[in-house]
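Translate sequence into structure tokens.
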Amino acid sequence: MTTFEDRERAEEAKFAHDEEMLFRIQARRNKLLGNWAAERMGLDAAETEAYARSVVQAEFEDAGDEEVIRKVHGDLLLAGVEVGEAEVRKALEAKTVEARRQMMGDV
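Result follows.
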């Protein structure tokens, strides 16, 4: 095997690892955001767990942050929690940082 092939395989492995970490960080972030929203809605522990899973699932159904924001914001409004979309976006950003720190600590 040549040095070029070794380097190419190493780059492919790093790319795969980085993509997996990004996926795991986003899933954890969405769960943390779901927990944040559930607390604001006054859900009990079982409802909080189920709601957090539904937030994680929302990104799988229609990939992207916008779907997660739309879901959480809409659910909060339906529950009678007065919250702006900007506040949900800010919480998403904070949960991204928290999830990244947690995942880096797990490595």
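Note: The mean pLDDT is 90.
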